[in-house]
Amino acid sequence: MKDYLKLCAEKLSISLTEEMLAQFEIFYDLLLETNKSMNLTAITEMHEVVLKHFIDSISVSKFIDLSHCKVVDVGTGAGFPGIPLAILYPETEFVLMDSLNKRLNFINMVTEKCRLNNVTTVHGRAEDLGQNQEYREKFDICVSRAVASLPVLLELCTPFVKVNGKFVSYKSESLQLELEKSKNALSVLHCNLEKEYSYSIPDSDFFRVLAVFQKSKKLEKRYPRQAGKPKRNPL
């Protein structure tokens, strides 16, 4: 696994140290073992885990430097992209949020076994945590690989971002269609598309678009709306 991961990372000009590769291997082993009793991922074949979870997660580093930032991963699930990025950036502070506590228990086990001292987990729904002053507008960068429409993700994620901070959404080739549907959300949430990066994951036909949004002003207090509303009635 380590050799294949190192080779694929090098194709993206990402260098992984032996310590990082060892941490990824521990994460991989724990993911497969825990997945036997808990539904963490449908992807379990080694090459696919490396490409679609590990490489996909860290590919953002080819375009955006996360060094010495404060980063939040909203809807982290089994720890993607947060854990791979935390391995890659040991000096960066990561907060991983999810609404399901058992996923966070798994992530806590991973961070302990991998000795990742730069990761904190927070249990709760994004709508509630986005109104919590401990987290609201406290982060330089928000990342999310969560599966939701862009208007929904913008409302769930931008409340955590500082003014002039960035929200990075891992999307697919459907981005242009989603952007059309997001015009109102972008206006209301004071965001604009700063850059989009399109590329293929090495050694696969997996296509990725990273949408990078910049936030220009503080949000009105009413955003995010109460739990469930962003999804039921997108901006």
Name a few traits of the molecule.
235 residues; 10 helices; 22% strand; globular; seven-stranded mixed beta sheet; alpha/beta
Could you describe the 3D structure shown?
- The protein has 235 residues and is an alpha/beta fold.
- The protein is 38% helix and 22% strand.
- The chain has ten helices and seven strands.
- It has a seven-stranded mixed β-sheet, sandwiched between helices.
- A hairpin with a 6-residue loop joins strand 6 and strand 7.
- The model has no long low-confidence stretch (mean pLDDT 95).
Structure at a glance:
This protein is an alpha/beta fold and 235 residues long.
Q: pLDDT average, as an integer?
A: 95
The SS-based structural class is alpha/beta
The helix fraction, in percent, is 25-40%
Using DSSP, what is the number of strands? 7
Count of DSSP H/I helices: 10
Strand arrangement, largest sheet? 3-2-1-4-5-7-6
Order of helices and strands: HHHEHEHEHEHEHHEEH
Strand-residue proportion: 15-25%
Report the sheet with the most strands, covering strand number, pairing sense and barrel closure. Answer: 7 strands, mixed
**Rough outline:** globular
What gap, in angstroms, lies between the N and C termini? 43 Å
Low-confidence stretches: none
- Gyration radius over CA: 17 Å
Task: Break the fold down into its secondary structure elements and pairings.
Elements: H1 2-11, H2 18-35, H3 46-58, E1 70-74, H4 82-88, E2 93-98, H5 101-113, E3 119-123, H6 126-129, E4 139-144, H7 150-157, E5 161-171, H8 175-181, H9 183-188, E6 191-200, E7 207-215, H10 229-232
Parallel strand pairs: 1-2, 1-4, 2-3, 4-5
Antiparallel strand pairs: 5-7, 6-7
Helix pairs in contact: 1-3, 3-4
